[in-house]
Amino acid sequence: MGLDTFHAHSDPFYNECRAYGRLHESHLNGEVAVRAYGYITIAAKEIQRLGREFQVDDWEGNAWEEYYAWDEDAYLFRAIVKDLIRDDTLWTHKTVKRMKRDLLLMREQGIFPLDIQSKNYKDGLLVDLSVAMTTPHYYLDMCPDRVYEQVIEHDLYSFDQMVKKAGVKTWVTAYNKEYLKKLRPRESTRVHYAK
């Protein structure tokens, strides 16, 4: 595996691009997570101009300056353009049931958010997929079986912990080993790379 592949699967921006791309392909964009419209980039020379205009002198600790000197046309600021949702999640049985359904739909599409916590939900929709793994993913394809199972079960366990912490009285749970076995059969999804 090359460094480019590793970078493309570990960069938060690319993680969201892959996840939202899959949601778009599956006609689930805006249904199971906040709607995404695309992305924007800002070149290094534009960052400098914006910094002067708005008196911003600390863009990620000025790490951009190192790159700016190297290539003023480099795109250093990247962001996914999404709907703005101002409302926090109203924690009810009905909302939790829908959120679980949405999480399971994402997983059926090969998207594993891996950062299920209440701060990443607005109005019952997931708004942050920056650490998501979307299949095919080199790590899921190459990791040992025990680790693979832990990774794909993580979201469901985290979902149940989030609901418990929110204090919602509900019978809805996401973590179910029998369901997991049906959801994603091992033989058909793992890619074996030549060594």
List keywords for this structure.
single chain; 195 residues; alpha+beta; two-stranded antiparallel sheet; 48% helix
Explain how this protein is built.
This protein is of the alpha+beta class and about 200 residues long. About 50% of the residues lie in helices and about 10% in strands. The protein is built from 9 helices and 6 strands. The chain has helices at about 5-10, 10-25, 45-55, 65-70, 95-110, 140, 145-165, 175-185, 185-190; strands at about 35-45, 75-80, 110, 120, 125, 135. The strands form 3 sheets. Strands 1-2 form a two-stranded antiparallel sheet. A two-stranded antiparallel sheet has the order 3-6. A hairpin with a 2-residue loop joins strand 4 (about 120) and strand 5 (about 125). The protein is globular. The N and C termini lie close together (about 10 Å).
Q: Provide mean pLDDT, rounded.
A: 81
Reading side by side through the largest sheet, how are the strands ordered? 1-2
Strand element count: 6
The helicity comes to 40-55%
Give the CA-CA distance, first to last residue. 10 Å
Instruction: Compute the CA-based radius of gyration.
Output: 19 Å
Task: Outline the low-pLDDT stretches.
Answer: 185-195
Major sheet description: 2 strands, antiparallel
Please report the number of helical segments: 9
| Pattern of helices and strands | HHEHHEHEEEEHHHH
Work out the strand percent: 5-15%
User: Looking at the structure, what is the overall shape?
Assistant: globular
Going by helix content, strand content and strand pairing, the class is alpha+beta
